[in-house]
TrEMBL record, chain A:
UniProt source species: Jannaschia rubra
GO annotation, cellular component aspect: plasma membrane
Quaternary data: The complex is composed of two ATP-binding proteins (UgpC), two transmembrane proteins (UgpA and UgpE) and a solute-binding protein (UgpB).
GO annotation, biological process: transmembrane transport
Function statement: Part of the ABC transporter complex UgpBAEC involved in sn-glycerol-3-phosphate (G3P) import. Probably responsible for the translocation of the substrate across the membrane.
Cellular localization per UniProt: Cell inner membrane; Cell membrane
Residues annotated as domain ABC transmembrane type-1: 76-267
PANTHER family to which the protein is assigned, alphabetical: ABC TRANSPORTER PERMEASE PROTEIN MG189-RELATED-RELATED, SN-GLYCEROL-3-PHOSPHATE TRANSPORT SYSTEM PERMEASE PROTEIN UGPE
InterPro entries tied to this protein: MetI-like, MetI-like_sf
Keywords for this protein: Cell inner membrane, Cell membrane, Membrane, Transmembrane, Transmembrane helix, Transport
Lineage: Bacteria, Pseudomonadati, Pseudomonadota, Alphaproteobacteria, Rhodobacterales
Protein name, UniProt field: sn-glycerol-3-phosphate transport system permease protein UgpE
Highest taxon of source: Bacteria
TrEMBL record, chains B, E:
EC number of the protein: 3.6.3.19
Top-level taxon of the source organism: Bacteria
Pfam families: ABC_tran, OB_MalK
Catalytic class of the enzyme: hydrolase
Record InterPro entries: AAA+_ATPase, ABC_transporter-like_ATP-bd, ABC_transporter-like_CS, ABC_transpr_MalK-like, ABC_transpr_MalK/UgpC-like, Mo/tungstate-bd_C_term_dom, NA-bd_OB-fold, OB_MalK-like
GO CC annotations on file: ATP-binding cassette (ABC) transporter complex, substrate-binding subunit-containing; maltose transport complex
Name of the molecule in the record: Maltose/maltodextrin import ATP-binding protein MalK
GO molecular function: ABC-type maltose transporter activity; ATP binding; ATP hydrolysis activity
Record domain ABC transporter: where: 4-234
Recorded family membership: Belongs to the ABC transporter superfamily.
Organism: Jannaschia rubra
TrEMBL record, chain C:
Gene Ontology terms: biological process: transmembrane transport
Organism this protein belongs to: Jannaschia rubra
Entries under InterPro entries matching the protein: ABC_transporter_permease, MetI-like, MetI-like_sf
Similarity comment text for this entry: Belongs to the binding-protein-dependent transport system permease family.
Protein name: L-arabinose transport system permease protein AraP
Domain ABC transmembrane type-1 stretches: 84-300
Cell compartments where the protein resides: Cell membrane
Residues spanning the membrane: 26-48, 89-110, 122-143, 169-194, 215-240, 279-300
Annotated GO CC locations: plasma membrane
SUPFAM superfamilies membership: MetI-like (SSF161098)
Length: 281, 353, 309, 392, 353
């Protein structure tokens, strides 16, 4: 283990470390803490210039106000509507592509694989105009499924990289054993490989959830009305309305951050596994 | 009739030939072991029989059927992998019944066959466990059970015990021997463990670089090897090989000094070289004036191994049944039982008979 | 027990249908079809379409007019383009700071004390939250007059600096905001990397008398190479994709000084005063070309690893 | 029962939104078979969004602006010709003052419902604090204004405030300096690309601007216009070149008619007839509208004096309909007076009179100038280069 | 004086004691081997000597120095790990020179020492390779080279050969023996391989659950074990243990039938049980009327192992030096050399002497 375990250090160092970690954490999260505190600061505090002191009272009403006076609820709902089908769709597609690329040795295998990988890195901007036109022409502009379809397609690239490598790491004998036993390829996929991919699926689903939930660019490009905008785009436009109303902006930010943070906390192990296995955003 | 026969089978990976035309007949019910150094093609050959590798040329028959181009599933073979290849998400019972289930056998048939196999393999208490919760030996038994359940005509084993520790390996070896006795099916078994090959096989096939060196019963190979490779490969510690010179119809062995030995085999003309093979247990040492020096004596209790250096720079191993102390570095006199010596041609390495 | 108990030759012999004979050749394409189709429609073909569009003058509403390479010629003479390009370079270079910074934090946190798991997860937070939120948080942090940083600078130097209103600092300010989540990301990568550092090598080095920095440099870092590689890749991609923060924090301002290529492209193509699809596409193509350098590198390395297997 | 739906995309701030909802309610009361679905966007976002929804997901009605700002949508066929609405309802008569700005190719493309004056809003308390006499609506010259700025600086008050994060507030200052230095015709020539940006007359405008530049709120580039409004409200700034819609914000911030003052932008060149800025806000029917007939009915209603009264009273802006009444508000009265006596002409606004691309580049240039006046040459060269490309 | 001595050393991981107060003296230049079942604390003890684990209580001296709380780098020890622990990004030469470099030795000193070590270990041709490009045995040699280069007073080996295949293991074992002869440093060596322990050690320490069971030369442990554990642990195949009953000052062994045997040791009173230990090579079998059945005979050429089942359900292994065929399932008569039998207390498992 590196660095040398702190338990082996002198007591003083140990105590210093125990203090240093929370202090560092506090500094590290200072901006976030500020926002969290502001989100429960009464508007009057801001008016009086009390931006960073102790709030004069705790105003959870800010949150109520956010929901009452803005389409925040609808934004959040839209985000879920885009995110959840995307997670399911991208996983379904990439389980299959990953399986095909990991198990079979056909000639263009690597070529197809690298195409998925490369596609995963391209700047969004090069896709923007054509994808927007396509979405328009399919009459899916401003719909959750228009966004979800694109995200599914794009994330399939990333997920394929991940899934393929994961399946490749499974013992190939499992597939051979099943083949010797006379199991058809489709059933091998369904009964042997898919159950073993559960950790990968869990890891990817959290990861994709966060990616899509946090997506701003495509939300801006493929939707523009509060009825269909997800929360990132919604928050950005609310920011245009809530000038100087930092307590509302903060409350909105906290609300927008909540689902991915909760997801991260609940599925932390999977999340990190996902990052480091696939390791690309 | 469920023997296996290979007719001039060839396997190429891309341009590289790995199996160079092998002919082999394995009888119905026979236990056939493939041995050979790493990379000689044992696994490849086995996988060709299983259908997991395409056969480049030649024919493979199982029983009377030509299976050369047939899917693994339809060959009536079952395979046990070195890594067990158990499905980690299924219980032991599900693992064993999986093949039958996928091929649409009714539930109760599956259940009874699994029960039967688990009885044979003493797995009854573990049927509901996942492989993770089993020891190495138990896992290996499940892998075998999975093979048994489908009632195949031919069992294929690829180094099934090499992942077990020494003690367990002995137990499982005995269990496989018993299994073969019990179900009597044809079995092909790949290993690089001497002891497994010697103790399990009805017939050993010694492979080397994709070619068969010799086929025979264990004792045939041990006592009567066809060539130097087989002689050196079978038996542990390996046979000592020394240079010899034909001298008046006898063979002189410069390293051991002493007079020429009678051979009773057809030797090349005088002055030609031969290779003399002597098993460690057919040699004996005693301290005495000599050019040969005891380098290291390894005393294991019941038996000692002496490593000797000859003046020619050759190295000899001698197995001794006592544990007397001889100091390392002592000159020793080596005696041997000339009737046990084998002789090989220097160039072709064929046995001289 | 004889073999009679196990019915002989019960091995399955299903009929050999065409599918069964060819399934191993057809199966991969069946499995690939849906994903490949989606990817082709939404990712691959748009890349070529964009290249095509970049040769037109098009406002997104009316007719496209073929103008050949004129958009590129104009780019070569466009100050805003060079500003964006320069900012992209700044992003690339400064964003790289997240790699050593993430490493240092990972090393700092790679201990086991009570509650460490919780601490670590909290350190990850910035990475999990949306860049929009990060942008808002930092805008507020930088806000003139009352912003915490503004006040801090004012307290230190006497006059506050409105980071986001000053073309000298604005890009640095945004990059700093971007570094916050990026450092967290790199830290995660390194923490996992450190988890997998071979203990025996560390111990061997300890016996060899390596300590502290020298241990880090000679023994640990070489083992962290895969993590470093990935960290660099994601950082490069993150730097070149930087859009959200610019859009949320400054909208490219003041007077376009914080633009980056990805934002400039959007601005030209879709923003209030934009709608020059062809010109935007040309910018995207340039950005793509830059990214392609890195993508090729990555693919090349993957290909090498693949072959070594 | 099934109502006929009219979808209306708009970008109202809260107060006007309420007013428009009132107008809609009135309209629906009169036409019970029609339901208007108002879909409100944030103001800045709307300007981007309209492009998308006109082609993608067209509503039946959409807010926009008069003048050059609507030209791209007209020429690309996104807005519907509503000349028939004008004709049938005699709007050429009642909305006569806006006819020109609504006409392209002899057709009308939308209905205006409000306009508002620009000028300088003052915090009279700040004047007092700096010891400067509060000027009347028109009694101060540019020299005096600039001179006052020194007094404000001495008192630690920003003489002139603005928030240029969204760029357009800076254009208001430019427009006025330009109108006062070169006059209305020059403004129109410049925005339609007929005058080079490197022209001496343009430089003259910036020379004037340079005089107040040091006294403008320093961090304006990081501020939204509302942030700057807060500075005025708090007395940290004394003057604000803004449109009348800001009054609502000032009042919301706690100012009253007691301390909030209004004056016309001071005279600079004496020989030029006074011109003013008064942007007109309009409603249009997209070509792709599903229900244009009911949309037209609504437009006709929106053109009535009654509807314009309702909405402008709430917005604190001026109705276009000549029969409508100017709301009873000192600022609006002053504004109405100012506009109706502006013999030089009434401009829309820099970003409504100039084509979008030029507007964007120009406003960026203004912002840069306000931060770094020393870059003027570079800025003008850049704008000139853009002009030759954009107007070709 | 560079022996190693442990005085009542204790190691606890958290609350769990793993080493329970061990006293041990290892002489200067001695080759000391730790053996014992998995998890008994061999590695822990070795790592405590290395300084890689903190010593919870007790004292460790190397030579005259108390090193209990000293940094590993300063103890003058070098360690060879089971996994080799080579730095994969350095060449062989860099790997070997790394320790010297870290301690600020000049370049030419490093170069000459590395050259010296590589000569001893025959690594000259590989100095510029990365470990990845080496075979297992070469890697192990590099690991040893890295230890040699630093010229330590004490070498520590933790199962250095367990990752090598059987053949290579024999070669490397001999090489280590030679190395010890050549440089004569104190060496402590952990293994669970019988043969390595027997052949390499000057002194074997048998550990069990963190305690020393017996210390002695290989032959002492083999011939004269203190207790049943040591007797069963040393020797391969392991000693057979059978129940015996004291009967008139002699011991009757029901499983083998036959009369009571004379023991010459202090036995418990009549009727008490004892455990009788018999090594496989001290037993002999012949077909004949008996309750004992030959289960399986494994014939390895020079030697055969017979697995016998007694009516009591005990299992016996007999080593036979011939390869005559006895059919499996045949009843066999077992004879043994009573003078070779060892006796153990049933409860304490101590040897009865
Ligand atoms: N898929 C493959 N592609 C190319 N060459 C292969 C492939 N599989 C095996 N080989 C080569 O074929 C030869 C025989 O391999 P095989 O696995 O049959 O050896 P083996 O006798 O089983 O060795 P081991 O005892 O190490 O298992 C080796 O040289 C190997 O490199
Ligand atoms: N870091 C540790 N924390 C807790 N317990 C440990 C640790 N290291 C070892 N142990 C425990 O100490 C005991 C001795 O372990 P050790 O590794 O010394 O055994 P060993 O004799 O080397 O076994 P093996 O032959 O398997 O290598 C084991 O029970 C092990 O579980
Ligand atoms: Mg093999
Ligand atoms: Mg150990």
């Amino acid at each position: 283990m590196f660095p040398r375990p702190i338990e082996q250090a002198p007591t003083a160092t140990r105590w210093l470390y125990r203090v240093a970690v929370p202090v560092a954490l506090f500094l590290w999260l200072l901006p976030l803490l500020g926002v969290a505190v502001t989100s429960v600061r009464p508007a009057s505090d801001l008016a009086q210039g009390n931006y960073f002191g102790m709030p004069s009272s705790i105003a959870f009403s800010n949150y109520r106000e956010v929901f009452a006076n803005s389409p925040m609820a609808s934004y959040m709902l839209n985000s879920f509507k885009v995110t959840i089908p995307t997670v399911i769709g991208a996983l379904a597609l990439s389980c299959m592509t990953g399986f095909a690329l990991a198990i079979y040795n056909f000639r263009s295998n690597l070529l197809v694989f690298f195409m998925f990988v490369a596609g995963n890195f391209v700047p969004f901007q090069i896709l923007m105009v054509p994808v927007r036109d396509l979405t328009l022409s399919l009459d899916m502009y401003n719909t959750w499924y228009g966004l979800a379809l694109f995200h599914i397609a794009f994330q399939t690239g990333f997920c394929t990289l991940f899934m393929r490598n994961f399946i490749k790491a499974l013992p190939f004998e499992l597939i051979e054993a099943a083949r010797v036993e006379g199991v058809s390829e489709v059933r091998i996929f369904w009964h042997v490989v898919l159950p073993l991919m559960r950790p990968a699926i869990a890891a990817l689903s959290v990861l994709i959830f966060t990616f899509i939930w946090n997506d701003f660019f495509w939300a801006t490009v493929l939707s523009n009305s509060p009825e269909s905008q997800p929360i990132t785009a919604g928050l950005s436009s609310l920011n245009g309305q809530w000038i100087a109303q930092w307590h509302l902006v903060s409350a909105g930010s906290i609300l927008a951050a909540l689902p991915p943070v909760a997801m991260f906390f609940l599925m932390q192990r999977h999340f990190i596994a996902g990052l480091t296995l696939g390791a690309v955003k | 009739m469920t023997g296996v026969s290979l007719d001039n089978v060839v396997k190429k990976f891309g341009p590289i030939a790995v199996i160079h035309g092998i002919d082999l007949r394995i009888e119905d019910g026979e236990f056939c072991v493939f041995v050979g150094p790493s990379g000689c093609g044992k696994s490849t050959l086995l996988r060709m029989v299983a259908g997991l590798e395409k056969t480049t040329a030649g024919k493979i028959h199982i029983g009377a059927r030509d299976v050369t181009d047939i899917d693994p599933a339809e060959r009536g073979v079952a395979m046990v992998f070195q890594t067990y290849a158990l499905y980690p998400h299924m219980t032991v019972a599900e693992n064993m019944g999986f093949g039958l289930r996928m091929n649409g056998h009714p539930k109760d048939v599956i259940r009874s066959k699994v029960a039967e196999a688990s009885r044979i393999l003493k797995l009854d208490n573990y049927l509901d466990r996942k492989p993770k919760a089993l020891s190495g030996g138990q896992r290996q038994r499940v892998a075998i059970g999975r093979a048994i359940v489908r009632g195949p005509e031919v069992f294929l084993f690829d180094e099934p015990l090499s992942n077990l520790d020494a003690e367990l390996r002995v137990d499982m070896r005995i269990e496989i021997a018993r299994l073969h006795k019990e179900i009597g099916a044809t079995m092909i078994y790949v290993t690089h463990d001497q002891v497994e090959a010697m103790t399990l096989a009805d017939k050993i096939v010694v492979l080397r670089a994709g070619r068969i060196e010799q086929v025979g019963t264990p004792m045939q190979l041990y006592a009567d090897p066809d060539n130097r490779f087989v002689a050196g490969f079978i038996g542990s510690p390996s046979m000592n090989f020394l240079d010899g010179v034909v001298d008046g119809g006898k063979v002189r062995i410069p390293a051991l000094g002493g007079g020429p030995v009678d051979t009773g085999v057809a030797l090349p003309p005088d002055g030609h070289k031969v290779v003399v093979g002597l098993r460690p247990q057919h040699l004996a040492v005693a301290p005495g004036p000599s050019d040969i020096v005891l380098d290291i004596r390894e005393r294991l209790g019941g038996v000692s191994y002496d490593y000797l250096d000859t003046p020619q720079g050759e190295r000899l191993i001698v197995e001794t049944r006592d544990d007397a102390v001889i100091d390392e570095g002592t000159p020793v006199v080596v005696t041997f039982d000339a009737t046990q010596a084998l002789f090989f041609d220097v160039d072709t390495e064929r046995r001289l008979r | 027990m004889t073999r009679a108990a196990l019915p002989a030759a019960s091995a399955e012999m299903p009929p050999r249908s065409r599918w069964r004979t060819h399934q191993r050749r057809l199966a991969p394409w069946l499995f690939l079809a849906p994903g490949l189709a989606m990817f082709a429609v939404y990712v691959v073909s748009p890349i070529f379409q964009s290249m095509w569009i970049s040769l037109y003058d098009w406002d997104g509403l009316g007719e496209k007019v073929w103008i050949g390479a004129a958009n590129y010629a104009e780019l070569m003479d466009d100050d805003a383009f060079y500003t964006s390009l320069w900012n992209n370079v700044l992003w690339l270079v400064l964003y790289m700071l997240s790699v050593p910074a993430g490493l240092m934090m990972a090393i700092f946190l790679n201990q086991t004390i009570r509650g460490m798991r919780l601490y670590k997860s909290m350190f990850f937070f910035p990475f999990v939250i949306s860049q929009v939120v990060v942008g808002l948080i930092f805008s507020w942090f930088y806000a003139p007059d009352f912003g915490l940083l503004y006040q801090l600078i004012e307290w230190l130097t006497g006059t506050g600096v409105a980071i986001l209103a000053d073309d000298r600092y604005v890009t640095y300010g945004i990059i700093a905001a971007g570094l916050w989540p990026q450092i967290a990301y790199v830290m995660i990568l390194y923490l996992t990397g450190l988890n997998n550092v071979a203990t025996d090598q560390i111990e061997a080095a300890r016996l060899d008398g390596a300590k502290g920095w020298r241990m880090l440099w000679h023994v640990v870092l070489p083992q962290l190479r895969p993590a470093t590689f990935i960290a660099v890749v994601v950082t490069v991609i993150g730097a070149l994709r930087s859009f959200d923060l610019v859009s949320v924090m400054t909208d490219g301002g003041p007077y376009g000084s914080s633009r980056v290529l990805s934002f400039y492209m959007y601005e030209q193509a879709l923003s209030e005063y934009g709608y020059r699809m062809g010109y935007g596409a040309a910018i995207a193509v340039v950005l793509f070309a830059i990214m392609m350098i890195f993508i090729s590198g990555f693919i090349w390395k993957m290909w090498r690893d693949e072959r070594e297997r | 029962q099934d109502k006929r739906i009219v979808r209306y995309n708009a970008d109202f701030d809260p107060a006007p939104l309420a007013a428009m909802e009132q107008v809609i309610a009135d309209f629906e009361a009169a036409n019970p078979e029609i339901e208007i679905q108002l879909n409100n966007f944030d103001h800045e976002g709307y300007k981007t969004a309209i492009r998308n929804f006109l082609t993608a997901d067209a509503p039946d009605l959409a807010n926009w602006y008069a003048g050059n700002r609507m030209a791209p949508f007209v020429t690309s066929g996104q807005f519907m010709d509503v000349s028939d609405v004008w004709e049938e309802n005699g709007l050429e008569e009642s909305l006569g003052s806006a006819l020109a700005s609504m006409t392209i190719d002899d057709k009308q493309w939308g209905v205006p419902y409000t306009y508002y004056q620009w000028g300088i809003y003052m915090n009279e308390d700040a004047y007092e604090a700096a010891g400067v006499e509060v000027p009347g609506v028109e009694d101060i010259t540019w020299e005096e204004f600039v001179a006052n700025c020194e007094a404000f600086e001495a008192a630690g008050i920003d003489c002139l405030t603005t928030g240029t994060k969204a760029l357009w507030p800076g254009a208001g200052i430019f427009d006025y300096l330009n109108l006062r230095t070169n006059g209305y015709d020059f403004h129109m020539d410049l925005t339609s690309g007929e005058v080079p940006w490197t022209d001496e007359r343009v430089r003259a405008v910036f020379d004037e601007w340079a005089k107040v530049q040091p006294y403008v709120t320093k961090n304006h580039a990081a501020l939204e216009w509302q942030d700057a409004a807060a500075l005025l409200v708090q007395g940290k700034a004394a003057n604000y070149v803004m449109g009348n819609f800001a009054v609502a914000v000032f009042k919301e911030g706690g100012m009253t008619e007691e301390n909030l003052g209004f004056m016309r932008f001071p005279e600079i060149a004496t020989d030029i007839p006074r011109a003013e800025e008064a942007p007109t806000d309009t409603v249009h029917i997209p070509t792709a509208a599903q229900n244009p007939d009911d949309a037209k009915a609504f437009l006709a209603y929106l053109a009535t004096a009654e509807a314009q009264n309702t909405i402008n009273a709430a917005m604190g802006q001026l109705p276009i309909n000549k029969d409508a009444t100017v709301p009873d508000d000192p600022f609006l009265k002053a504004g109405f007076e100012t506009l109706s006596t502006a013999e030089g002409g009434i401009a829309q606004f820099f970003d409504r009179d100039a084509p979008a691309e030029m507007a964007k580049m120009g406003m960026e240039g203004f912002q840069e100038f306000m931060v770094k006046p020393e870059n003027l040459d570079r800025i003008l060269d850049r704008l000139e280069k853009a002009r030759t490309r954009i107007y070709q």
